[in-house]
Amino acid sequence: DRGLVERRGWREPRTFTWPGGKRIRAYLCESADALLLPPLCPSLKRVDFYVDARAPGLNLALAVAARSEGVRRVIGALLPMGLVLCRLFGSAGGGIVYEVEGADGAVVSVAFVAPRDSYFVALAPAVLAARAMAQGRFSATATGLVPPDRHVEAPELVAYLGRLGVDLVTI
Predict the structure, then answer these.
(1) Looking at residue 75, what is its pLDDT?
(2) How far apart are CA 132 and CA 99, in angstroms?
(3) Cα 85 from Cα 113, distance rounded (Å)
(4) pLDDT for the residue numbered 92
(5) Alpha-helical segments (H) within 6-119
(6) Is 167 helix (H, G, I), strand (E, B) or coil?
């Protein structure tokens, strides 16, 4: 809380409510958000990133791999076959849920959810920033490493994702 802490991924599960009321079990993983968000939102006390693999058995395999070098080697060797199996049996849809707890303890959750191609949520800010640069619309003051909150305005991002079939949902 307020400090950067290193923790091995896929060892700390947590249950979340997914849009539509479905409960999912996700696992703590690394994210650049732990470094990028606190300077933008100084009142943040903690930034965690949890992932649900959304493929049968994959969460368990990754949790075991987080504890065993041998299992990590086996998974690495079987990766091409694993990708095929994930495409066949994994979820086509997905998204990202943001859960924010206020100083008063009230929790608000919002999500970007897509029935398929949910990876667009991660790609969209860079795509829109590149378009703006190509069209000469990117801020002249945005030079060097541009913080993520200045890649694209929120209304433009939500509208773009909506056109791609990604919904913004309050849970």
Answers:
(1) 92
(2) 30
(3) 23
(4) 85
(5) 33-40, 58-65, 69-77, 79-89
(6) strand
Mean pLDDT for the chain?
Answer: 87
Q: For 56-67, how does the pLDDT look when each residue is reduced to its tens digit (9 = 90+)?
A: 889 999 999 999
Q: Give the chain's residues under pLDDT 70.
A: 1-2, 139-142
3-state secondary structure of 6: coil
* The two three-digit tokens of residue 135, written as one number: 């069209």
Identify the DSSP state of 114: E
> Do 65 and 10 form a contact (C-beta atoms < 8 A)?
yes
DSSP 112: E
Residue 144 neighbours by CB distance under 10 Å:
4
Tokens of 20: 């539509």
Kindly report the pTM of this predicted structure: 0.79
Q: Determine the residue type at 161.
A: L
Q: Which residues contact 1 (CB under 8 A, 6 or more apart)?
A: 45, 46
